[in-house]
Amino acid sequence: MRTMGLDYGDKTIGVAVSDELGWTAQGVETVRRTTAERDFARLKELVAEFNVGEIVVGLPKNMNGTIGPRGEICIAFAREVEAILGLPVRLWDERLTTAAAQRTLLEADVSRKKRKAVIDKMAAALILQGYMDSKNAR
């Protein structure tokens, strides 16, 4: 079974999945948010396609470790994912993952248009990789 990472945003949901062994994360898609029904239908399809058994949702904490309004929204989304998809959902501190993804793409000289298309799934991959690395380090 694989693990899926989600980077939940106002307009998109970045999606990444692990390999079968849980060592590496790959960004697979950026879901353009339309309605909750369509968004969850697409996530269900991806869960089935990749044989996902666990989901990790990025939790944007403030730099001092507290949870602000955006974090509360992500917690509510994680609860909804767990209820609708019927899989265990973990929250993972995602501080600076989008900034790290942006920096990596800038260093790779990726155009602004292409960066915009891949930034969310790359952030999801960084969230998932961080989670798996911490789990494998135990």
Automatic annotation (TrEMBL):
Its EC number is 3.1.-.-. Its main location: cytoplasm. Residues 1-101 form the YqgF/RNase H-like domain. It is found in: Cytoplasm. CDD domains: YqgF. SMART domains: YqgFc. Signal peptide: none annotated. Keywords: Cytoplasm, Hydrolase, Nuclease, Ribosome biogenesis. It is an enzyme of class 3 (hydrolase). Pfam families: RuvX. NCBIfam families: RNAse_H_YqgF (TIGR00250). HAMAP family: Nuclease_YqgF. Could be a nuclease involved in processing of the 5'-end of pre-16S rRNA. Belongs to the YqgF HJR family. PANTHER family: POLYNUCLEOTIDYL TRANSFERASE, RIBONUCLEASE H-LIKE SUPERFAMILY PROTEIN. This is Putative pre-16S rRNA nuclease. It comes from Gordoniibacillus kamchatkensis. The lineage of its organism: Bacteria, Bacillati, Bacillota, Bacilli, Bacillales.
